[in-house]
Fold these 2 entries.
Entry 1:
Amino acid sequence: QVQLVESGGGSVQAGESLTLSCEGSGFDFSIYWMAWFRKAPGKGRVGLAIIDHNGDASYDDSVKDRFTISKDYAKNTLLLQIDSLKPDDTATYYCAADTFGGTGWRDPGSWGDWGQGTQVTVSS
């Protein structure tokens, strides 16, 4: 059974950096595609970044200059580094996992497994 547990969120000041973690268990971390989404208050879940089973990453244009997705294969952990945080980054951040191959990855419905989310609040 796939389990994903996010951590690393918190309350930070604008301009600071934060690294979110998503620890995975119950699946072969090396063959799964994984992604980060976020959901801001009053908005839908938005895809931010995806990383494939080989470690190749793609980003939504809105975050590609400040967000870095990576996998720590030794710890079965997905990471998201966020630099130069802005108040607009305030949201609940979720990781997702699947073996579907990445087509339509921005659609939350494409992903079969989700973590519970970690809250990031950025104050100005």
Entry 2:
Amino acid sequence: HVQLVESGGGSVQAGGALRLHCATSGYTKCMAWFRQVTGKEREGVARINYSYNDPYYANAVKGRFTLFPNNGWTTLYLQMDSLKPEDSGTYYCAAARSGCSVAGWTEGKFEYWGQGTQVTVS
């Protein structure tokens, strides 16, 4: 069983930056960040495959967010720049035992989830 622990959320003004951290206790083939606003469905933000180190971003964050692991793949970072109020929400780290294709990284694919970290942009 893999455990994921997120940190790094907080409050920031529009145009500011935050870096989210996801510490993982074990190996998985694909990791991702999702976010959710109360009353809305959880949406994918970015994902990366361990084997290919191939970050892929949702259109809403492309060019502003950067997804990267540390050298040992024990922590996955999400660098969020040029933040907008619509980026606010609870951000969840997720991991899957199988690899992610370009289109195949919806919520149901991921077996492991963190507890979430809150991001507020005003």
